[in-house]
Amino acid sequence: MRFNRRKRNFVAFKVICAFWALAVAVWNAHPAQAAPFAYVGNNDSSVSVIDSAINEVVAKVPTAEPPRSLAVSTDGKRVYVIGVRSFSVLGTSTNTVVSTVMVDTVEHVNLDRVAVAPDGKRAYVTGSFFDSSGPPSPANLVILVFDTVTKTVVARKKVDHVGECRAIAVSRDGKHVYVGCNGPKLFVLDTERNNVAPINLPPDVGVSGIATAPDGKPSTCRVVASSGSSTRPQVKLQQSPRRGF
Predict the structure, then answer these.
(1) Over the chain, what HEC string results?
(2) What are the beta bridge partners of residue 30?
């Protein structure tokens, strides 16, 4: 009786060991998740895809124009590529451009920077807006709103401003879009009301970057500004819960 019990225990132990070995083998055979990729715009109208795990270019994707700005969707499935007159969508699973929207040339809109809403439904693009009577120059700011599903421009907001606008970011809750311009000014687009409010910055700086919600609050942004060759401390702007900006 005791011998049979020991035999059963030994068989059970062997079964457990076999099952564990099989589980380990299956786990090791499962392909590892793809490493993060970086996307770089090139002057020859292309985007280089870099595998950051090995620091090598693994693909080069042709685009309609030389990219001026890129933004990756939150889920990592799409890269939005901005040319002077084009808005392209690159699919990361195939590393191909799946759609391109050419902005009308009658209004002389030169696109510049792009940022994507956290939910991925909207992409916000800055550009220079002019009538057809003169050559394009950075005299007026326009913010275009692209529907990422229909691949169309669903709204545009013109802002009278003289100076380059080279920074854009979307708040974590998607309710505000921040555009930093030389001048210096910060423009805040309310995405629900579709209105723009200006904020004057210290007169001796130029805006070089914007980061949103570094402290986890969706209504907070930090502006990185520079004065000459030195970088000034970040300017923190926080929305009032009652008055807004």
Answers:
(1) CHHHHHHHHHHHHHHHHHHHHHHHHHHHHCCCCCCCEEEEEECCCEEEEEECCCCEEEEEEECCCCCCEEEECCCCCEEEEECCCEEEEEECCCCEEEEEEECCCCCCCEEEEEEECCCCCEEEEEEECCCCCCCCCCCEEEEEEEECCCCEEEEEEEEECCCCEEEEEECCCCCEEEEEECCCEEEEEECCCCEEEEEECCCCCEEEEEEECCCCCCCEEEEEEEECCEECCCEEEECECCCEC
(2) none
Could you read off the pLDDT of 157-195 as tens digits, one per residue?
Answer: 888 887 778 889 998 888 899 998 887 788 999 998 888
Are 104 and 68 spatial neighbours (Cβ–Cβ below 8 Å)? Answer: no
Q: Are 17 and 25 in contact (CB under 8 A)?
A: no
The sign of the CA dihedral 114, 146, 170, 77 is: negative
Q: What number of residues does the chain have? A: 245
